[in-house]
Amino acid sequence: MDNLLSSVQSPSDLKTMDVPTMEKLCACIRAFLIENVPKTGGHFASNLGVVELTVALHRVFSVPEDKIIWDVGHQSYVHKILTGRQDKFPTLRQFGGLSGFPKKAESIYDCFDTGHSSTSISAALGFAAARDLKGEKGEAIAVIGDAAFSGGLSMEALNHIAHCHHKVIVILNDNQMSIGKAIGGFSQYLNKIRTRSAYYTVKRETNELLHRIPVLGKPSAMALKKLSRLLRYCVTPGVVFEKLGCRYLGPVDGHNIRQLCDTLSEAKRLDTSVLVHVMTKKGKGYAPSEEAPSRYHAVSPKKTEGETCSARFGKTLVTLADENPSVVAISPSMPDASGLSEFVKKYPHRFFDTGIAEAHAATFSAGLAEGGMTPVLAVYSSFLQRAYDSLVHDVALGKRHVVLAVDRAGIVGSDGETHQGIFDISYLSHIPNMCVLAPADMDSLSEMLGYTIKEHAGPIAVRYPRGALPSFSRPSFTFGKAAVLREGAHITVAALGRMVHTALAAADILLEKGIRAEVIDIRSVKPLDVETLVSSAKKTGQVLTIEDNVLSGGAGEKIAAALSGICPITIKAFPDTFVTHGNVDELFALYKMDAKSLAAEAERILKA
Ligand SMILES: Cc1ncc(C[n+]2csc(CCOP(=O)(O)OP(=O)(O)O)c2C)c(N)n1
Q1: Buried b (16+ CB within 10 A) or exposed e, 36-67
Q2: Average pLDDT of the segment spanning 60-72
Q3: Ordered DSSP codes for 392-411
């Protein structure tokens, strides 16, 4: 079996394989995923679900001439296995190792980097238009899950396909799941398509009825034809896609290689845009993940110990919601991962899953606020990037009291470039009316959340990292105030969020060398506590800042502007780059943002 898997080193090795051999290959791939992914951690159930689909795609199409764009890209492991990257799986998602998402830089077979949802149809249409303008050949293929398919960008791309004449093939991988259950009108529509037998019954019965009716003259015949068309409109699978200019093929059993190869060949043969509706089972072939696909959406080799920030956020929010019936929670398709499970259970009518729709979620929250509710939008930092204009135009401009619970802020680690939450301070804090807070420990997170809901008016964000924040002794939270955690004399180290612990550890290292650093927990990027920062700067004469955001537009730059002419300042933040995948500590060390490097930087400043 393993020999069969290792005999496939490039997709061309599939071209002469017969169906039974491809079926055996699929079994080998599943065994490979089940053995390897839990060791490194990574997306699991989604990959188990697309084994046959990926084999069939590579059998029928030829990358790199044909372009396959994997939406989100979390389901691209099988593609990686088939394109010469099997041996690298022990390094999956580790620093310097195989990425968990498609990466152009990693392979000629990856044509488009992904990580965020719903981009594949737009990108495929772009490829198709470029191909046609240059008179080139090759198919442009978007492989997209049913939840990603319902995202706004996908709808915009479909709308565009309808009025372009550039052929794209959209493979709709329908497993009826997002990370949790897929929700929304599209999900219901796809459900209707799946119950296809209803269509055949109605169609057959209509035909029989039409035949049994005696000839009634032209007007009645035309009326009946119209009725028949109307019925077809109501019950033909995929008629909506046909109306949007895509030939609909399916539904196809996504675990039947022969059916898949036949349908994909038909899609290739057609000269119009096509939507192939493929039915798959998320987690297929591994009983626990078939039963609980959401739990196995992603797996990790080590269990998270202790309370995470997401969990603390969720717990605090339930308490705040108990006290205040106007509190409602919104999640763009990630309620469990955002810590909202308990809230959803207790207050199902006060919870809104918008589907993968961050921009809609933000504007929807603005509407809720205007309508008198207190919306708390729980969203990952990198995904909130999608909602930038909604935040500016709908939330901030009208000073709406929307609370943004910005999870996974800063470095998230193994998901890499697309998922690092290192831009939120920059893209939030320059918006007028928006406030931005960052807790350094769990209790501060609770205190800040309490403030945002009970006392604040207007838009406000609380950003916190993936995992936990350590506890430490510190003064309680006051809005707009920084906290001096340690008095010093030689240098001020001002830190934000989890970097406060790095600053304290650096101060310990410095103390051993006789250098007394004053450590300030910035807490609020906006409003910034200029008074506390200025008074410390005047005392020590040197300021060093550290934050887990990019330098440009971050807290350090704001502090530098406030301290202009008072004392020199050095800013530690991520440079103007995308931060790769890897272990969080490794990445901080790489960018010299660990305690040792920070202490060394302070020493260097003082020596200079
Ligand atoms: C813009 C954005 N929001 C949220 C996510 C988080 N996310 C990753 S996969 C996923 C579910 C995808 O479901 P579907 O497209 O149906 O694919 P499946 O995993 O079921 O194969 C979500 C919500 C994301 N990647 N991008």
Answers
A1: bbeebbbbbbbbbbbbbbbbbbbbbbebeebb
A2: 98
A3: IIIIITTT---EEEEES-B-
Specify the pairing of strand 327-331 against strand 374-380. parallel
Location of structure tokens 């050949």: 137
**Residue to substitute in 77, 178, 381 for testing ligand 1 pocket (most ligand atoms within 8 angstroms of CB):** 178
pLDDT tens digit sequence for 21-65: 999 999 999 999 999 999 999 999 999 999 999 999 999 999 999
Strands (E), 247-388: 247-253, 274-279, 298-299, 327-331, 351-353, 374-380
The encoded tokens of residue 312 equal 């603390």
- The answer to whether the beta carbons of residues 495 and 502 sit under 8 Å apart is yes
* Catalytic entry in 85, 93, 282, 408: 282
Q: Which residues pair with 519 in a beta bridge?
A: 486, 493
Q: The tokens of 225 are what?
A: 């034809």
Q: Is the CB of 356 within 6 Å of ligand 1?
A: yes
- The whole-angstrom distance between residue 280's C-alpha and the CA centroid of its chain comes to 21
| Whole-number average pLDDT of the chain | 93
Domains of the chain are 2-196+237-299 (3.40.50.970), 309-463 (3.40.50.970), 483-607 (3.40.50.920)
Q: pLDDT digits over 78-91, tens only? A: 999 999 999 999 99
Preceding peptide of 251 cis, ω within 30°: yes
Interatomic CA distance for residues 426 and 430, integer angstroms: 7
Whether 72 is in the pocket of ligand 1, judged by its Cβ within 6 Å, is yes
Indicate the pairing of strand 483-486 with strand 435-437. unpaired
Whether the Cβ atoms of residue 230 and residue 145 lie closer than 8 Å to each other: no
pLDDT tens sequence across 247-305: 999 999 999 999 999 999 999 999 999 999 999 999 999 999 999 998 899 998 877 77
Partners of 78 in beta bridges? none
Catalytic residue among 30, 85, 167, 386: 386
3-state secondary structure of 177: strand
| Dist CA 409 CA 8 (whole Å) | 40
How many C-beta atoms lie closer than 10 Å to residue 284's C-beta?
21
383 Cβ closer than 6 Å to some ligand 1 atom: yes
Q: Within 13 Å and on the Cβ side, how many CA atoms surround 431?
A: 27
Q: Residues in the chain, how many?
A: 608
Dump pLDDT digits (tens) for 575-588: 999 999 999 999 99
Q: What angle do CA 492, 493, 499 make, to 5 degrees?
A: 165
Each as own residue / partner, the long-range contacts of residues 152-159 (CB below 8 Å, 24 or more positions apart, any chain) are 152/118, 152/357, 152/359, 152/360, 153/118, 153/119, 153/121, 153/122, 154/118, 154/120, 154/121, 154/122, 156/122, 157/121, 157/122, 157/124, 157/125, 158/121, 158/241, 158/244, 158/246, 159/244
CB 64 within 8 A of CB 111: yes
**Residue 451: what residue type?**
Y
Q: Is the CB of residue 232 less than 8 Å from the CB of residue 203?
A: yes
